[in-house]
Amino acid sequence: MNTLVFVETSEGKVKKSSLEAVCYAKALGKVTAIALGPADAQELQSLGKYGAERVLHAADARLAQSVIQAYASVITQAMTAVNADVLILANSSLGTPVAAKVAIKTGASFASNVVELPDTAAGFVVKRSIYTGKAFSWMELKNSKKVIALKKNAAEVKETGGSATVENYSVSLTDADFNTKILSSEKATGEVLLPEAEIVVSGGRGMKGPEHWGILEELAKTLHAATGCSKPVSDIGWRPHHEHVGQTGVKVSPQLYIAVGISGAIQHLAGVNSSKCIVVINKDPEAPFFKAADYGIVGDAFDVVPKLTAAIKAAQ
Amino acid sequence: MKILVCISHVPDTTSKINFVENNSRFDTTGVQFIIGPYDDYALARAIEIKEAIPGTTVTVLNVGPADTEPTIRKALAIGADDAIRVNAEPTDSFFVASQIAAQASGYDLILMGRESIDYNSGVVHAMVGDLLGLPSVSPVMKLDLEGTTVKMTREIEGGKEQVEANLPLVAGCQEPIAEWKIPNMRGIMSARTKPLKVVEPVAVQVSAVVKKFELPAPKGAVKMIPAENVAELVTRLKTEAKVL
What we know:
The complex is a heterodimer. Chain A is an alpha/beta fold. In chain A, about 25% of the residues lie in helices and about 30% in strands. Chain A has two domains: about 1-180, 3-Layer(aba) Sandwich (Rossmann fold), CATH 3.40.50.620; about 195-315, Rossmann fold (3-Layer(aba) Sandwich), CATH 3.40.50. The longest helix of chain A has 15 residues, at about 300-315. Chain A starts with a strand and ends with a helix. In chain B, strands 11-10-9-12-8-1-6-7-13 form a nine-stranded mixed sheet, with helices on both faces. A two-stranded antiparallel ribbon of chain B has the order 2-5. In chain B, a hairpin with a 2-residue loop joins strand 10 (about 150-155) and strand 11 (about 160-165). Chain B starts with a strand and ends in a 5-residue tail after the last helix.
C-alpha cells in the first residue's frame, strides 16, 4: 500500500503528532511524506528514521502561510504524483480540514479521530473516537482511496533506523486556492502546545483566581507540560479560550493529566477521558472527578501543588 | 442576505452513551436530544446578523429522520424564518455534506457548528465548501460582515488567526461567536406555524459504513494518596503508571 503523510512543523520542528502519523503509515506500507512551506531540510530528512522513504518539500513562498485550500490542492496533486492509496495526517486545526478537502477532491473515503491501526482482515475498517471520547465506532472505508486523520496516540513513535531522500516538490496553484486570506496570527511561542502535550496540568475554579496560576505553571514547567483549564475558568476570562479543555473546548489525550481544583463535570471529562493516567487534586472528597481518576489526593491545592512540584524536582 | 444554518440533533452533553442490538445502534432510552451546542452558536450569530441587517432571512437545515423535528422547531422558536429537513439518517460526514450542498445554492452565508458532538468528525463545513467551490473557515470565534467581505477569527493550536474571505462562504462556529439564545413564548408560539419543508435525500455513493460501536473499557478504582505524602504519588506515577 502506498501512503502519503502530511507533516506539520511548529517553530521549525516536526510536530510529534506528525511523527505518529509517519509511524502509523509505516505500519501500512511505503511512506512518502510531504511538508509545505518553510522547513529545515535536516529536520525533514530525519523523518527517514521513523519510516519515510521520500520526503517531498513544497517550499513555494505562497505556502508560507497555512492556507487550507492551497494546502489541500498541493496535497491532492501529490497524492496523484506518488500514486498514494491512503493519505494520513494528524488531526489539527490545519490537518483535519485539509484532509476533508483532499477526500472530496480525490473521491476518497474519509475518517477523522482515528485511534488505532486499521483492521484489514476484511476490507479496511478503522476505529474512531466518537461521542467526544465516550465511545468508539468501527467504520469501513469502502472507496479505493482513503484519507485518515489521526487522534493523538493512534500510533507509537518508533525509530526504525531508515533514511529518507528530501526532494523539492514544485506545485501549481491558482487564485482560487487563496479564496481565504490570513491577515495575521498570534500564537504562544516557547510553550508546549496543549493538544500535543504528553503531560497536561489543568486548573479549575478551585484555584480561586488567575493570580494563583503561578503554582500550576511552575508544576507544568517542571514536568515540561502544557497548562489547561476548565470551561468556567475560560468563560470568566481567567485563562485564554485555547486552554479550555472539555466537550466544547480542546480534547486532550496525554500520558498524564493532572486536574487541580476541577470538580469534574461530565463535559470536562469528555475532553480528558482518553488520557492514559489522570491525577485529581481537590479539597472536596466528594468531587465527581475522583471517580474518573487513577490517583487522587484530597487536599488544598495551595498546599499540595508546590509540594508535588518539589517532589518531582527531587526525583528528577 | 440569505443565511443557511445547518443544525445537528444530538444527545445532551450530560447523556450516558450506550448501544443496543449487539452494539449496532445507539440507545436513545432516557436520552434528551438538543441542537448541537456548536450549531447553537452558529444559529445565535445568524439571528444577530438578521437583527442587524434588514431583509436578512435565516433558514435552518437538518439532515435527519422525522424525530428531529422538535429540535428543528426549537431553532425556529429561537428566530429562524423557515426550515428544511432532509429525510435521511446522517450516516457520515460525506453523506451529510452532500445533502447540505444539494440544498445550499442561493445562500450568502452557510453557518454550522465546528463539529457535531455525536460523531465529532469536524469536517462537514470543509466538505460543503469544497463541494460548492466556496471558501470555508473553522473553528470561527468571531465573524463580522463588511459589505461582501467577512472578517473572522479562527482558533488554532495555542492561539488564533485573523482570516478574511468574500461571500458566499461556509463557516464552522464555536464560542464566543455569539451568546446562545433562549426561545421566548412568542417565538415558541410562532415556531409552530413557520414553514418546515421535508425533502428527500439526493443519491450519494456510500463511501463509509459503521460496522459496530464499542464502549471504552471500564476504568479501575481510583487510588487515593494522603495529602502529606505527595512523594508517594511521584513514585507511583513513575513505577506503577509509568507516565513520568
